[in-house]
Structures are given as structure tokens and as C-alpha cells.
Amino acid sequence: MKNLKIIFFVLLIAANYSKALAQKPAVVLSDKQGWHKIGENTVSFNTDKDEIMVIGANKFSSLQLKVTNAPVNLKSFDIYFDKGDKQSVSVSQNIKDPGETRVVKLEGGGERVVRKVILTYNTATGNSGKKAHVEIWGLKTNTDKKDK
């Protein structure tokens, strides 16, 4: 019985470790004004919670999520900033294919450094087995840069 518990514990750790390795950070290379795709994921049919790390030129004033391939039930998403604070965005909406959320202005004014976004959602039922594809877009206004 003790060996069975140890094997179960090792399998549990291995499953969580492989899921962590599957997460690819979004690398934003451009600092030009406008909208930039900062992350994407395919959504399962079960309630899913995905974490998307953002590195590189990661200062934004607003975020928006876009949906393709199938509708999605978006419950919420949390935006984590460089100083450890977070902004929770409650959505609780079915987003059609194609569709998008409202533009979410980041709290604190100006541009903020976004470290990660955690999404809570699932693909809506009745879509012929297709899985939703969700993209996270960030708006760069460069309001903190001085004109030269």
C-alpha cells in the first residue's frame, strides 16, 4: 500500500511537471505602437486554466482576447504585473467564433509590464468537436516614451 502511494505521488508530480514544460512563454519582440499578439492557446472541452508567460517588450496599456475555430465559455482572466500585483477580469460570457472580448484597460494608467495572464475557460459544446483557439492581444501606446 505504501509503494502504491509513492508511485501515485511520483506520477502526479510527473504529470504536473510535463504540463509546466508544455507552457511556452510569449515573446514580444516589437515595441512599436499598436496591437501585438502576446499569447495563444487551444482550449479543451473541460474547464481549463492556462497560464501564459509574457517576456520581452511586455509593456501594454490594454488587453483583448480573440477567439477562432469554435465558441468559448470565458469565465475570467487574471493579469499579473511586474511588481506582483494583479488585475482580475470577470467575463462570464460565451464568445462566438470568430469573436472577441471588450478591450480591457490595464489599471494604474499608462503602460504596465505584464508578466503573465491566467485564463479560465472551456470550449463551448455543440461545435462538431472543434476546439476553440484563443489569442491574447496587447496594445502598446508608448505613452511613457518621449518624442525626440
UniProtKB/TrEMBL annotation:
<protein>
    <submittedName>
        <fullName>DUF2541 family protein</fullName>
    </submittedName>
</protein>
<feature type="signal peptide">
    <location>
        <begin position="1"/>
        <end position="22"/>
    </location>
</feature>
<dbReference type="Pfam" id="PF10807">
    <property type="entry name" value="DUF2541"/>
</dbReference>
<keyword id="KW-0732">Signal</keyword>
<dbReference type="InterPro" id="IPR020240">
    <property type="entry name" value="UPF0412_YaaI"/>
</dbReference>
